[in-house]
Amino acid sequence: MSQSEEKFEYVSSATLPTRWGQFRIHGFVETDTDQEHVALSYGNWEEGEVVPIRIHSECLTGDALFSTRCDCGFQLEKALQNIVEHGKGILLYLRQEGRGIGLLNKIRAYNLQDNGLDTVEANEHLGFDADLRDYGICKIMLAELGVKRVNLMTNNPKKRAALESLGVEVVNRTPIDHGITDDNRHYLRTKTEKLGHEFDPHLLK
Ligand SMILES: Nc1nc2c(ncn2[C@@H]2O[C@H](COP(=O)(O)OP(=O)(O)OP(=O)(O)O)[C@@H](O)[C@H]2O)c(=O)[nH]1
């Protein structure tokens, strides 16, 4: 086991009925920070099978409070729906709120965006990089769930690169262009222009 793998521990799992179907929830902890993460799995797969997955970073405002400032909540719902429709899949829900700056710093960044900065400038103004996320735990989560080959639901090339660097084979990428609203179009354009997100430009006009 590498040093970074030793930082994460599988804790327990349980059934998790949802509006879309019955998942299992699996709990993991980062032992040096006590940060908790979860994975939701649905259905069964054979060894070596390509499994649809989404890596979703925590967004309290979008995922739980119905915010339309971002597309996070819409993507979360769509990913769970896709998984159930497909009959199998995994959602890795990583507790790295605000691209890693935390909830209250995200609110500070929103305040700066209310005053004209974009999402990248706001992070930088607060002294953070635009994106501080680390995907190392995905390796442990996917290994625990018996998955080595995936179809990744994302528009973010950094997630694909991160999985590949962890030795997970990304066989396909499925775009997840869901939840574009008048409130988040500018934010999504900035992510395309400055963070390399792969959005169909026609959707952002
Ligand atoms: N710092 C900061 N974080 C934000 C802002 N808006 C949303 N977020 C965070 O951005 C992250 C988005 O996570 P994801 O939807 O998993 O990832 P993504 O990079 O958008 O990639 P895909 O959705 O997979 O294409 C969440 O942690 C949100 O809390 C913002 O304006 N500033």
From TrEMBL:
Keywords: GTP-binding, Hydrolase, Metal-binding, Nucleotide-binding, Riboflavin biosynthesis, Zinc. InterPro entries: GTP_cyclohydro_II, RibA, RibA-like_sf. The keyword Isomerase does not apply. Pathway: Cofactor biosynthesis; riboflavin biosynthesis; 5-amino-6-(D-ribitylamino)uracil from GTP: step 1/4. The active site is at residues 131, 133. GTP binds at residues 54-58, 75, 97-99, 119, 154, 159. Zn(2+) binds at residues 59, 70, 72. Transmembrane segments: none annotated. Binds 1 zinc ion per subunit. It comes from the Bacteria. Its cofactor is Zn(2+). Pfam families: GTP_cyclohydro2 (PF00925). Residues 12-175 form the GTP cyclohydrolase II domain. One of its GO terms (molecular function) is GTP cyclohydrolase II activity. It catalyses: GTP + 4 H2O = 2,5-diamino-6-hydroxy-4-(5-phosphoribosylamino)-pyrimidine + formate + 2 phosphate + 3 H(+). Its EC number is 3.5.4.25. It is an enzyme of class 3 (hydrolase). CDD domains: GTP_cyclohydro2. Belongs to the GTP cyclohydrolase II family. Catalyzes the conversion of GTP to 2,5-diamino-6-ribosylamino-4(3H)-pyrimidinone 5'-phosphate (DARP), formate and pyrophosphate. This is GTP cyclohydrolase-2. It comes from Fluctibacter corallii. The gene is ribA.
